[in-house]
Amino acid sequence: MHLYNLTLQKPTAINQAVHGSFAGTRQQEICVGRGKVLELLRPDPNTGKVHTLVSHEVFGIIRSLLAFRLTGGTKDYIVVGSDAGRIVVLEYNPTKNCFERVHQETFGKTGCRRVIPGQYLAVDPKGRAILIGASEKQKLVYIMNRDAAANLTISSPLEAHKGYSICFSVVGIDVGFENPTFACLEVDYEDVDNDPTGEAMKKVQQTLTFYELDLGLNHVVRKYAEPLDEMGNNLISVPGGQDGPSGVIVCCENYLIYKNLGDQPDIRCPIPRRRNDLDDPERGMLIVCSATHKTKSMFFFLVQSEQGDIFKITLETDEDIVTEMKIKYFDTVPPANAMCILKTGFLFIASEFGNHYLYQIARLGDDDDEPEFSSRMPLEEGETFFFAPRPLQNLSLVDELESLAPVLASHVGDLANEDAPQIYAACGRGPRSSVKVLRHGLEVTEMAVSELPGNPNAVWTVRRSVDDEYDAHIVVSFVNATLVLSIGETVEEVTDSGFLGTTPTLACSLIGDDALLQIYPDGIRHIRSDRRVNEWKAPGKRSIVKCAINQRQVAIALSGGEIVYFELDATGQLNEYTERKELSSEVVCMGLSEVPQGELRARFLAVGLADRTVRIISLDPQDCLAPLSMQALPADSESLAIVEMGGDETTGSALFLNIGLQNGVLLRTVLDHLTGDLSDTRTRYLGTRPVKLFKVKMQGKNALLATSSRAWLLYFYQNRFHLTPLSYDTLEYAAGFASEQCPEGVVAIAANTLRILALEKLGAVFNQMTHPLTRTPRRMIVHQQSGNVILIETDHNAYTDETKQQRRQQMAEEMVELAGEDEQELAAEMAAQFLQENLSEKEFNAPRAAYGMWASVVRLMNPVNGNKLQDFPLPQNEAAFCVAIVTFANQPDAQFVLVGAANRLKLRPRQCSGGYVYTFLLSTQGDHMDLIHK
Amino acid sequence: MAERFHVLSQLEHLQSKYVGTGHSDMNRWDWVTNHHRDSYASYIGHPDVLSLMAVCENESRTRIKFNFLQRMISPCGPPPEKNPLDD
Predict the structure, then answer these.
(1) ipTM of predicted assembly, 2 dp
(2) According to its UniProt record, which protein family does this protein belong to (chain B) (predicted)?
(3) How distant is the alpha carbon of residue A646 from its chain centre?
């Protein structure tokens, strides 16, 4: 027995993000680490949409990522610190579209260990040395260089271990071309461990330690250590050498401190807090992430606080000595794990929880009215700067990357009564939570729908010449007529295209360079570019039943199982082959592959016969119409398509024979180029109706659209075949469509309408629908009869709405009280204004209460359309943790919802002052809950 | 190579190389402190575990990581008094 798992959706959370020119072009890409998947993203500079270039599963945990470039190099390399006990340097190869491993150096055991490096990565800004560090003790420095052949070389590791010291953060300092130096925030606990009185613990201080790599002597020296007054959590390296003063900014709780070696005095600046914040005033503020932007003339930093507020920091220098640090409120976005500022002016936010965003930096916040705070401004003890958060002004949202992280509860079921079950995922944290409904299928954008007279049975698109980029006509065939529409500004009927409109059409397409071909039951019509028409009539009482066309060849089947073959010669004349092939049974379907590049004809004709077989017939001039191979089928065939798919320039693609059967099954067989042998059949059940196959183009490559009770798309994306259903109505016939507005679309008929569709998000297995919630969901249960869902949402460190109102009242009153006699009126006005304003929690983060305060809501909602049927908020400090639908023995008809809540729960050590069970009576339709008792 | 080292010095070498390696006479405080420190390092090292803790406490991941690193300094309080009879 084998255990087999299939990843339906790769991890969507982003833990690390670095930017750089990994492809060696001027465009920058973003390399993201999603836990165990390493991806390369590129934002399209014109549309701003983020595309995934390559996604690679590393089967390990990516703990840190770094991008670096050797001085004078053209491309950036990626360094990965993982749990593998190795340092890996990767290079992105744009032609093969994959990561290539340049170096892999083993230094320790696997696992996320305390002393084995992998947690922290730092690089010298000139790209000469990389430091990989652990949470405690070990730090290894590797020297990077170039050899004679311009390949990247890595040295043996140099140790910079310091026992008994915990590392908080490491960064490489820009020292120009002097010896590479790294700054590290460390705490030494040796004294603490040896002191039984506990005094040492109270006095322990964090140090900012500088390690210098002496390139001449080839070892690392602990150059200088300075104790800090407060604990810092983050370090930001300041550009140095020619571009700036060098040094480092230490992000401590509530403060930012600029430090440098030498004569530089410390420059301190407090982190501004929100004015009139409902937050617990005891809380400190940490800097969560930072991004540096450096140009030839200036540099600045963007730092983000825990609440999501981004501040812009600039340093004023006076001949290499920094004199002032200025900080200014920039905008507020969701708190992020990483921020990347790209050269094209985009800001990528890899959110901690929830969707990731790409913003355009519209303004740099230089000339607005926002107050700028400076380290020089005098502040009293305990005072800090205040600013007022506002909606986005300097950033504008360009793209959003969906993320399901963190999924807290989920339910798989068909609550919407569609034929396939959906996944309901309760995900998110705090005010950005939501219930996401995932449906298996590609998202389809409907570009146009138009009614047609009568019910059509087929549709094709035709170009006027082989060099045309866009299609010229849509040809729709009805039971007794053919309609030709022109594609342009509007879709209009044309009568002078050369096609015969009084008969149904079996197939039509462009043949040769600029001639059109129409096959109808009585014959073939060949329309040359100079409007001359050659007709071939079907012999006697026989009619053409099926046909297959490609750029130069035509094969038709007459009733009675006879195949006639035509080929286009050099003059553009369609010549019939001298022999005709008689087959033992009626022909049900036919397929020709495309003419390969540089050749005159396609070699294989596939014919499906009524005796449940598919035969491959050769069209080679030596053995024309000779049978090559045969495949027996489990059911009658409905349609055939020979498509060349898969692979890239190096490995070459393979020819696949796709057979759609009448029982709704799709068979895919490999067709050998040389011998025509059929092998390796794969089967997939698509739906209840017979499967029809249509060749379309997706992302410039061949793809297959298969219609059954649902339409499916078979395409090759990211080195893998994907067969995904379309989240759309049933289609009857389809063809590829290219126009200016829609370069890679599909035109299809459904009942009596003509639809033009575009499929944009290839590679996304699920399409999502989001219904927002207000707090972190914990559990979700489904009421089977109605399909409604009961959710409990609980947040630690939070205020209930009632408490928030109370606090606001309180703060407003305080404002009025504190104001002096003559300012009473002004203060009253401000207080009234303050009570009015309501910052959207989704954007600005909910106010964080003190430790041990909880807010909870029980919600009844319809997950399909997102209607919130009922909310029941619990009082402050009661936290709901579990929910169940029960029926009691003495009231067998009534359904009750029981919610268990803890009162005043403290997480560490875990204790609470009691618990409650809330009982609700659920109405029979499941849309209403009444509280019975608590 | 193994014959050159005594078992005790081999153990000391391991202990200096891999912090937290114990021995049969290890006292309770040592063991528990190393246990806690290793746990915190593991929580920080595994990004999903850190996210889980951040969601439970409704804090940012940076704050949780900062708290854990601070608690690694002295996770179980001061060590017990050294009895002069030991060693």
Answers:
(1) 0.88
(2) Belongs to the SF3B5 family.
(3) 23
